[in-house]
Amino acid sequence: MQCLNGGVRLSPAFPLSRWLRARGFSAKLFVGGLSYDTNEAVLKEAFGRHGEIIEVKVICDHMSGRSKGYGFLRFISETAAATALKEMDGQLLDSRNIRVHYAHRG
Question: Is the pTM of this model over 0.70?
Fold first, then answer.
């Protein structure tokens, strides 16, 4: 990565999404009420139409490996996250009504 006249030039070895995430230019959403059968691919597909997703995580029980019924998505832009929250909160996913909120920053 190089700075040119106040701008940033990224090398192909350092993807834009990784650079933006490192700089805090992303928005993380909490998704609750997931079916125990919902996996990361299903979650990414359902939310991906609202913008570029740079991270998806379905939280699983470490003993059984089964989903705990919630997960997180990180979008590349605040606008995409806001749109996804508005459009997806209360919708059906794998026969369950999901809840979508901004994840707490910590």
Answer: yes
pLDDT tens digits, 62-94:
998 889 999 999 999 999 999 999 999 999 999
Type and span of the H or E element at 29: strand 27-32
Closest CA to 52 of 87, 92, 79: 79
Two structure tokens written together for 80: 């995409």
100's CB contacts (< 8 A; 6+ apart) are 29, 30, 31, 32, 84, 85, 88, 89
Which among 67, 2, 11, 76 has a CA at the least distance from the CA of 41?
67
**Token representation of residue 29:** 């959403």
Which one, of 59, 70, 58, lies nearest residue 33 by Cα? 70
Half-sphere exposure of residue 23: CA atoms within 13 angstroms, side-chain side: 10
Query: Which position has the higher pLDDT, 5 or 60?
Result: 60
Beta strands per DSSP E along the chain? 2-4, 7-9, 27-32, 53-60, 67-75, 92-93, 96-97, 99-102
pLDDT recorded at residue 96: 96
